[in-house]
Amino acid sequence: MKSDLTVAHPRPVILKTAGHLTSDGAGVKMRRMMGGVPELRMLDPFLMLDWFGSDNPDEYMGGFPDHPHRGFETVTYMLDGKIRHRDNTGREGVIEAGDVQWMTAGRGIIHSEMPERVEGRMRGFQLWVNLPARLKMTPPHYQEIVAANIPVEERTSARIKVIAGRTAGGVEGLVQAIAAEVSYFDVDLAPNALFSEPLRSSQAAFIVVFGGDLTIAGSKLTANPVTLAVLGPGNGLMLKAGNEGARFLLIAGTPFNEPVAWHGPFVMNHDAEIMQAFEDYNRGRF
Ligand code: MN
User: Cα of 112 to ligand 1 centre, how many Å?
Assistant: First the structure.
């Protein structure tokens, strides 16, 4: 496997944030890294990113009782712990450690996401990916990839779990037909390892460091606290892990450049469509 990929114009870090501690659902404590936070309201085509990381069940067992979504996709990636989901079509399942659930809410679902009591620790991410106008009212569907089926690219000093998109080494994720052409990689680097990966210059891209630390063009990012870095213009990512190695998500996607009308769990293009979403929800049309 080719591991000496060079990047002519590496992307710099243009914004760094540890997000904000907040709570949502029935009192779940989390860190909102993107979405409605002043420094990063969204990063087209991405709307929101939450990080759940707790050793204390009291902080998360309330979970997320029934709530709707319309107009976008939710991507739940669990690292530790389990979440049981149920929706208004009767669909139900458990997202376990290492599993990914890519849910296209489309025209609308109502679901609950409730932690199951396990050893104590829960860690994971939920990303919201926007849908373009032509797909906002698509029928809802799920793509669920269990941990054992996530394709992995092994490099000399890197292990890349490919959740969506295709690496330069040719490993392709199993999640299909994502309008935003998303790459979603979970990268584990050995101490002091170098890592590079081309990224189309047309794509918005960010990384989230949740283990160890790393440096991108002189900018140091650590996992304590978990840190998100938005990457500026260029055609790829180049970075170096610190002495303890590094673990991070690399996420990129093609912007839609469409108007965004966003109210809570509904993300459409225009205010009238938000009003319609409330009306449809209140009249039981989801
Ligand atoms: Mn939800």
Answer: 6
Rounded to the nearest angstrom, the distance between the alpha carbon of 286 and the centre of ligand 1 is 14
Phi and psi dihedrals of 21, rounded to 5? -70, 135
Whether the CB-CB separation of 105 and 69 falls below 8 Å is answered with yes
Ligand 1 centre from 44 Cα, in Å?
A: 20
19 CA → ligand 1 middle, Å:
20
Phi/psi for 272 (5° steps) reads: -60, -35
Ligand 1 centroid, distance to 215 Cα (angstroms): 34
Give the distance (Å) from ligand 1 centre to CA of residue 86.
10
Query: pTM higher than 0.90, yes or no?
Result: yes
How far is 24 from 32, CA to CA, in rounded Å?
10
Local confidence pLDDT in tens for the 286 residues of the chain: 444 457 889 999 999 999 999 999 999 999 999 998 899 999 999 999 999 988 888 888 899 999 999 999 999 999 999 999 999 999 999 999 999 999 999 999 999 999 987 667 899 999 999 999 999 999 999 999 999 999 999 999 999 999 999 999 999 999 998 999 999 999 999 999 999 999 999 999 999 999 999 999 999 999 999 999 999 999 999 999 999 999 999 999 999 999 999 999 999 999 999 999 999 999 999 9
